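SAMPLE LOG
Freezer: B-3
Tube label: C17
Construct: single chain, 83 aa
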Amino acid sequence: MANRAWAKLAGIDGIVEVDVKILVILMLVAIFASLFSALFFLYRDTGGSTRTARALTVRISLSIGLFLLLMVGNYFGFFERGF
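STRUCTURE (predicted):
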């Protein structure tokens, strides 16, 4: 909780919480958009297209990024219980 005390002293405590929540929500929306675009490309494209694989690669990359963001945010105390 030393990091939370530092954030309060710096005057960014509430700002960091809101920004991280918005970032998590935006990343989840991007993950779902990539998933549904891959589904669309799977049905619409004929053989030989790599758009489905590329969309799924983007989804996996975003998911890993979100996981790392949550792990780092938890380590540095950006989240309170009930987040």
